[in-house]
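notes to self, project folder thing:

trying the whole complex as one job this time. last attempt i did each chain seperately and stitching them together was a nightmare. two parts in total, labels are on each line so i dont mix them up again. if this works i'll redo the older ones the same way
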Amino acid sequence: MKKTKAITGLAALTLMAGLFAGCSSNNNADNAAGTNAGNNGAGTAATAAPEGDGAKDLKGNITVITQRTDIVDTVFKDYAAKFNEQYPNVKVNFEALSTYEDQIKIRMSTNDYGDVLLLPTSVAIKDLPDFFEPLGQKAELEQQYTGLEERSVDGIAYGIPITVNYSGIIYNKQVFKDAGITEVPRTIEQFMTALQSIKDKTDAVPLYTNYAAGWTLTQWEAVLATVAGNRDYVNIAQVASDDNFVQGQPHYDLYKVMYDAAKNGLIEEDPTTTDWESSKADLANGKIGTMVLGSWAIGQVKGLATNPDDVGFMPFPTNAEKVLVPLADDYNLGISIHSKNKEAARAWVDWFINESGYPTTEGGGMSPVKGAELPEILKQFDGTEVTFDTLAPAKEGEEGWVDAIDKEAEIGLWQPDFKKVIIEAAIGNRKDSYDDIMKDLNDKWKAARAKVTAAQ
Amino acid sequence: MERVSNLSYKNQRILIILLFSLVPVVLLLTFSYLPVIKMFQYSFTSWDGFSKNMEYVGFDNYKTIFTRPEYFAVFKVSLYYFFATFVQMGLALYFATILSFNVRLKNWFKGILFFPTLLNGVAIGFIFLFFFKPEGTLNTLLDLAGLGAWQQKWLLNPHLINISLAFASVWRYMGMNFIIFLGAISSIGSDIYEASEIDGANRWHQFRHIILPSIKRILQLNLILAVSGAIGVFEIPYVMTGGSNGSSTFVIQTVDVAFKYSKLGLASAMAVVLLGIVIIVTILQRVLIKEEK
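result (full assembly):
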């Protein structure tokens, strides 16, 4: 009796062991392949794809990792087919990650993270050379592309933006019309009045925060330059100041809009249970008046609208003298330093940026290629006081300081946390006033700034 | 050539035992102990989780944690889950006792109660997100029951949010406690019940004097597990609210520090501190319960 039990137990154990052993041996195989593929990336010379006849001879098998799970099996397949017309011997495989930023970070601790991939924004700029192949001298490539300064180290570019975004407010024109707003609000005061009249005269939510999704709140940070009215503010003036969050500074004014809107009941009824996907449809169909977002969302919202012409874009309101809509990189496309087919990978990068059409169609922004045509929705701003411009890069030797101070202070300029606190305070869930929150942020900024500037 | 069958029976047995234990032990070392050792190592660095160079900073991370009270303020939230633990255990024990007797549809009820344990925590988070929405299930049900006046914004109200989340947590984990209790209660021989019935004991007497003493060990075990679970609450608040509106817990904070602010060293130190707290609480519980005897 006892023996039978032991045998059964043993059998069960064997089965389990077999199962696990199966898994682990697979992993080992993967790891081994990864290690073999690796090199130390000692060379800093850029990889260039051959042109003309060389293209026919270019052979290889490359893996492209993308964040677009929605179109990886459709549009990207078409891209690959078109790419193969020029480079018949390069086989392109795609891999789409649903939470790109998190997953790729973990992958990058191994050597196996594809050939062409997007540069994660959370990698410190100075660490890029450890992971990515140099694409060329920034000064040279700049003749051809915009937005390179965001992911360059020591004058060498490591990525090219897949599209250039502009940020502001996406609004529903019909809701504005119903609320009796004839002119697009330009100043913060006008904007608040507009929100109020949407609340009074229509059933729409004037300003939808998408508090629950969290990341949507970070879109506000992108319009900082508009509030400042100055392209130097974000990367230069900000790091030079100890008083980044005091009254009169752009950050203070920017988030005051959020606070006031929440306080006056101009946001959704219960922000804690909002849903991003349905908010897009609601904006498209007039249940929401405005949302602060980047240009990449315009296409998605229009796609859900019964009347796409209702969806409009306007710059974030500002009290500054001129209206500046900041242009900023979407993800940058780069090449893994461990890639075995760097030339083929480079061919894909060049083709994708220049010829696929992705930047303006699927990407929804502007092409990073200099001299490319402006998207349709922006033509309305031709001849107005609205200007579109990239942010001025940080001063030499101060690259990445904003990020370093931000992380050191745990402020989270590009994280939802303090925006959530602002909304919670505005709707009365917290005792702190807006000034308390700003003071706390400013204290953190000041302390961290002292630490970061001293360390450099 | 040496053959296995040439070995004595005893040695064959040792060989087989060693070979079979090798796999689980290796797995255990690779996936449990090595990461913990690494965690201790990281906790002394200012590593960002990414960079190729790791700077050793000594006890700086620990100093940071213990000099900043806001890191510990979130343990207040754990209290909600701590109290919920007792509700959870009480309910589990109640159902386990009832279902250990002969009841109609016994297995069906068992299935219903155990079912939430099988679900993925993320799925449960989403289910309850809909459940607590202003126009969601809970408020609709209240309305149907004629209790419309009791409708609440369950996740918006700062006084209710943690209770709502703790409720979801109770729903999720009760099934596990329940099944363990049920197993323990089933091991009590039926002759004891029969004897007690002859002596005139009612159901309450049976519970108080037979069931409770018999499952005391299991009760302790469940309590220890539940309390250390309450200290390390993570997935339900993380999925449902992301720790906003005052529902953040220590583990959520640790994850934020590690992945939002890229301070993996500091986060590792926080994890070590949490590990320490759990160990202390467990020891404390064992000591206190022993004294009761």
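what i see at first glance: Residues 99 and 106 of chain B are 6 Å apart (CA to CA).
need to look closer tmrw
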